[in-house]
Design a protein that fits this description.
alpha+beta, 2 helices, disordered N terminus
Length: 198
Amino acid sequence: MNSIRFTKWFVSCALLLSVVTSSCQKDESVKDMDTVKKTAATDSISTLSINNTSGNFLAGKGTLKITIEDSTYTFDAAKDSVAFINVHNGDNKYFGITAINKAHTMSFGISSIGIASTNINGKVAGSQFLFKFDDKKPLLQYTLTQYAGQDDSGILSIEKYNNENLIAKGTFFTFLAKDDKVNSPFYRAEGSFELQFK
């Protein structure tokens, strides 16, 4: 059980770290958008080995939407940092989506075991949704619950992948809880994404 928890933690951290690094590039005030994208791609490659040839993409256009507890949240890739990435940890392979808004007050990550491709339905391996309100309110954190049932972690589905200007299009659902206790309520989170290069 501890190895499963570590794997979920590792994947979530890797996904969120890549978005935080990428988001710093999107916050720069540069008039030429192509220059910003090239700089972001170069910095990401040098620090995290993220490059478009290996299936890691920083979206320039598109949306990621998540609904949980009757509220829907949207990341806009034109202003927020949204990335589709592949993570390799030894023989283990994961793919996923990470996002952080421009104000750095909301971030989301979801991953699945396997390799990304068109028409794939992957079992969710990790997910985390974080909110930072202000200095007076604590961080609100939703994480993948381990108590929904071993086969009920959710599905990350890709309808289209890496085709011309389209990075990925698909849907997902998973179950997130606000803490790690056995009796904690958990909530179904579902969403969709359509990410493009520009």
